[in-house]
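May I ask you to comment on the folded chain given beneath this request?
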Amino acid sequence: MIHSFTFKNFCSFSETSTIDFEDVRKGRETQNNMFCDSPGGVRLSKITTIIGPNASGKTNALKALAFLSWFVRNSFVGLEGEKEEIPVDTFAFSDQEEKSSEFEIIFEHKVEIYKYLIHLCRTHVIKEELYKKDKNTNHFNYLFKRLWNEKSRQSEISQRINLKTEVVKEILRKNVSLIAASVAIKNDVLSDIASFWTKIISNVNKMGKSWDTSSLGDQGLFDAAEFYNRKPELFKKVVSFLKDIDLGLHGISIEKVEARHSKTGELRKLFFPSGVHLVDGKEYSLPFAFESSGTKNMFVLLHFLLPAIEQGGVAVIDELEIDLHPHTIPRIIELFGDPATNPKNTQLIFTTHSLEILSYLEKEQIILVEKNKECQSEIYRLDELKGIRRDDNIYAKYMAGAYGAVPNI
């Protein structure tokens, strides 16, 4: 689980920005399903929403986590050679082009609490450090430290995890994560840490949201259907969930077909989903391409959400509500809040314009983003504002502009 995530000089965020998932309240008021006590003994939110006007930086906040997740686990194999640039987007409206981007995350993995930080620019990693929290002293002790030496043009490494430093230096490129490189040589400690990052499942990549059936055609449907074909037990849960929210849907079938690529002419195999409808006791099949946008998007969305729940990871979703009926969003919240359907306490982090959801969340679960006159995104948690009462109608007050982060129309 993630305790907090901090980033600086990334996309529209020029200054240090933090998303905090810890619930510092004490007493009976915290006893609801949307918070949980982590194995490490910290009370965390399972559900966090990010709201704000268009172009305020909501997606960029998710992109920061998506970028870090990719870099930590995939940069060694994802970047070919030392000359390939690190695909990090710094704050665009600044004269300091060489200024580094900075990331820090405190997370929990197998009852241990870790702190990881990295500073980098497009050409190389400047600093990378990993710490583990001592349960007796509550202090973070370092596992490794990596620092770029400008004179030697190499990284200097100090470590306490039996890492074969000389072997690592032979393969470690200046533009990759030490964790990703250590996986390649099968270091037990860092390979285990890397497995945490594989459980962060997102529909966001470097360019933003990676799917939208209204703009990407049916490719998202094919990808999701292929995934479900490999996971029959998960597919049963998808069918059950969709039948509950789409009263006209009796079931879903997936057919394996061959089709030629429209440009290359290459013959490829596709997994083609169809909705099954029951009319007068007879079943009729309708290709999913002709189902409603809401049903199609939920079909795709669930292939992000359910695997995250199954693994006990983190689901990071941009525009959770796209093409969905407002009544569907609370069902998704319930899916993560209910211990019966989310026994591993998977966290859901999402952006939305479906503001009715504010009526279902606590002030500690609401992150607001707005952009100032210098085109810098600013982020804050609702409970950081003074005078926010527990019994406030958060939805009504936000709509009235009491909390900021609303369009200036």
Remarks:
- The chain is about 25% helix and 30% strand.
- Residues 224 and 230 are 10 Å apart (CA to CA).
- The mean pLDDT is 89.
- Residues 1-199+315-409 form a domain with the Rossmann fold fold (CATH 3.40.50).
